Amino acid sequence: MRHVQELPEKLRAKKGFGLKMIIGLDGFVDEIVHPVDKRQDSANYTRIRTIKEFGERVSKAAGLSTNIEMVTVQTKLGGNGPILSNALLEYGVELTYAGVLGKPDIHPVFKPMVEKAKAVYSLGNPGYTDAAEFEDGKIMFGKHSSLADATWEVFRNCLGGAEAIAKLIAESHLFGMENWTMMPHMSDIWQGLINEVFPLIPSIKYQSSASRENSDISGKELLPLAFFDLADPEKRTKEDILHAVRLISRFEEKFRTILGLNEKEVYEIAEVLGIGVNKADYPECLKSAVMAVYKMLNIYCLVVHPVRSACCVIGGEYFFTDGPYCQKPKLTTGAGDNFNAGFCLGQALGLDPLSALTLGVSTSGFYVRNAKSPTFEQVIEFAHVWGQSPHLLKGD
Q1: CA geometry: angle at 26 spanning 378 and 324, to 5°?
Q2: Does a cis peptide bond (omega within 30 degrees of 0) precede residue 25?
Q3: What is the pLDDT of residue 396?
Q4: DSSP conformation letters of 328-344
Q5: Beta-carbon neighbour count of residue 221 at 10 Å?
Q6: In sequence order, what are the residues at sequence separation of 6 or more whose Cβ sits closer than 8 angstroms to the Cβ of residue 374?
Q7: Alpha-carbon span 285 to 201, nearest angstrom
Q8: Is the model's pTM score more than 0.85?
Q9: How far apart are CA 37 and CA 114, in angstroms?
Q10: Average pLDDT in the 23-41 region?
């Protein structure tokens, strides 16, 4: 727990940072719903507690039919990009967002985020998701047809052309392109960036990882970071996934590239890359899968966030931390995006890899307990309590 106990002081030393980031591309209106097991009266019901119980309820209806009531608990902004951005804005990052937030008017759920952002470019209408939450996970029921409007041409033109995009990137510490799986033209957008924008971005040498901890984050000795989240690629073909990870590797030409995955996704990517994983050998199988995928991608960092822990590989070295697991979370949808926000912030601040991981799990740990992203002061206090008196954390 020493790295947890040391994190608050490291973060206090970074107060007053002036980080600039660009995030895109998705946008969703999320309805958080609870599937009903038994209803006692118009105001009271019991939930279907687990995904297993939900699956059994659905299976019993095979060849027949059934009705499952969904109670809307919350309507909120959704999508990997907006949730990631919302968390970064809470931390005080100067942020530009380009994504599908609504046309001609931005959907009301995004207005608070838009009001905090430096600039927003809306490429089209958002998707819609019913997020059924259970005690052991969630099932997302999505409606995605509007996302096809976000093409490379729309993205390029909306942001003012290749030169304007290059200028935005050159002035930023991190460039994030989220939710490849649900954005049908994301690979084309990445290819467009490689073909038309990369030649306009100067190549900047950055210091070795050993000296980054004490570097000036506002200096231009560091390449900007590029962060990617595939977002559950199971429904995409093997050929599409291989093409996507090859494109992500190309971003290493101009960025320090980070690919963020959850545990399920890292095993899926390993399978696509032809890497055998013995899941019976847990947790060693996680480390071996992460290391093997990292070596094949040839990028700066691969970061993975299982439910109870987090790990990453940077410079060929593996780092791992347990997380502040919450037995009774208030909200789990968006927990991974909040982890990514904390980890990316830690990387942009120049924290060492283990501290960046710890900031990531602290961010998500606060989020699932409070159903909102923490401020910089709140995450410092959360890490302090976790490191000194973990029994005092809510939800345990």
Answers
A1: 30
A2: yes
A3: 65
A4: S-S--TTHHHHHHHHHH
A5: 12
A6: 90, 91, 362, 363, 366, 367, 382
A7: 39
A8: yes
A9: 38
A10: 95
